[in-house]
Amino acid sequence: MLRHAFIAALLTLSVTSPALANGKPDLKACKAMQATLAPREAEIAALTGKRDASALLAEEVGVRWEDAEIHRLVSAAHAAAADRERAAYETAKKQFARDEFALQSAVKQFNTDVSIFNARCVSQK
What we know:
By secondary structure, this protein is mostly helical. The chain contains three helices and no strands.
């Protein structure tokens, strides 16, 4: 993921560097930068949906684990069921953490790109 962010930053800089060659924004470079922002917003929306779904799943699996844990001492079968639910919960938590990290990374990079765009392409009055 960091490799993608690094590549995106390099591409952004390579596109925006000509924008300040004369000390004023290059319309072509600014339009190219602006064209990359809308797909990134769509990607962030998709990542948000994925993160929200994994959060909901982790919560549901956690509730199932808590319900199974209550009956752990009833029998070996109940203990095994509680262990399975706990493993499922740990897996769901890890997936949620990965999805959250991906979303935060994308948002951070998007905010950086918008700041660069604003600094180089938006006229200051």
